[in-house]
Amino acid sequence: MTNVLVVYKKNFESIHDESLTQLKSILEDMTTTHQLRIELRARERVRRADFIGRDLVIVLGGDGTLTSISHNIDENTPVMGVNSHPVSSDKNGSVGFYMDSTLETFAEDFSAALNGKAIENNLPRLRAIIDSTSGNRYTTDPAMNELLIANTHQYAPSKYYLRRGEKNTNQQSSGLIFSTWLGQGAWFSHSLDMQTLEEIRASIDDDEVNSHYFVLARDLDHQQRKEERWAWVDWTKEPTQILSDMHRGYVVPDGWDEVHFNRGASITVDLNAPKLRLLTFRQSMKERLIESIGK
């Protein structure tokens, strides 16, 4: 018996309800040839306990649906994404970068997943470890795409002391964005000019994509960008350490849950969060990214 959890997007758009109905029909047909135990949960009501003991997690929606619940999935549980509203069929739909399956290919893809014939992508994820001035420690949820560290008031500067390896500096910016290699197509790539972005991409070796991550200080002073390039934008495997000089700041993984901290808190960011075991069926995630950025 294969224990399957389906997490689906539920909102005011009827297209997602229609996609769920189609997916349920396909799964019901497949129970005649496979021994399946299937449970369905809306994204808004899913809990950590729902993911325990699953042989496969199916996420029906877009990238936001996956990133919002992926922190509940341990690194040994395979997950497959099904795009419920692909942009290929509607210009207002979802790109679904992590969602390699659609309703048209789902039956074939699901069979491949059950038979161990899918492509396994073990995706590195970012984490932030926050040490408060009172001695408490908190580790954020893992981030597939990016982490934001900034002042909670976006009109106020983010002030902090930054250290990476032997290098250190004081900064005042609009906050720091940390991005995985796969996550570069999201927030990170839209925060840099194309020339700088292409320079960074050209310097990346293939064997670094699972061990390194991007760092960007948003709206950093132009002079400091020139004098301390590593502190403005970097591609690194070393942990980044931040000492807060903000009255109130926050860490936001993948645009979801906020973790707040105060002045004097110490935050360490690295790529040592549990990986995500994402299944794809026609291309690896590395191939998908290279194709999408035209490299």
Please give a structural write-up.
- The protein has 2 domains: 2-117, Rossmann fold (3-Layer(aba) Sandwich); 125-274, Probable inorganic polyphosphate/atp-NAD kinase, domain 2 (Tumour Suppressor Smad4), CATH 2.60.200.
- Strands 1, 2, 3, 4, 5, 6, 7, 9, 10, 14 and 17 form an 11-stranded mixed beta sheet that branches. The protein has a 6-stranded antiparallel beta sheet with strand order 13-12-11-8-15-16.
- The N and C termini lie far apart (43 Å).
- The model has no long low-confidence stretch (mean pLDDT 93).
- It contains 7 helices and 17 strands.
- Helices cover 21% and strands 36% of the residues.
- It is of the alpha/beta class and 295 residues long.
- It is elongated, with a radius of gyration of 20 Å.
- Helix 2 (63-69) links the parallel strand 3 (56-61) and strand 4.
Keywords:
single chain, about 300 residues, alpha/beta, Rossmann fold, Tumour Suppressor Smad4, 2 domains, eleven-stranded mixed β-sheet, six-stranded antiparallel β-sheet, 7 helices, about 35% strand, elongated
CATH homologous superfamily assignment of the largest domain: Probable inorganic polyphosphate/atp-NAD kinase, domain 2
Order of helices and strands: EHEEHEEHEEEEEEHEHHEEEEEH
Helix-strand category: alpha/beta
Question: How would the global form be characterised?
Answer: elongated
User: What is the C-alpha radius of gyration, as a whole number of Å?
Assistant: 20 Å
Low-confidence stretches: none
Shape-level CATH architecture of the largest domain:
Sandwich
User: Roughly what fraction of the amino acids lie in strands?
Assistant: 35-45%
Biggest β-sheet description: 11 strands, mixed
Number of helices: 7
Overall tally of domains: 2
pLDDT averaged over residues: 93
How many β-strand stretches? 17
Q: Which CATH top level class of the largest domain fits?
A: Mainly Beta
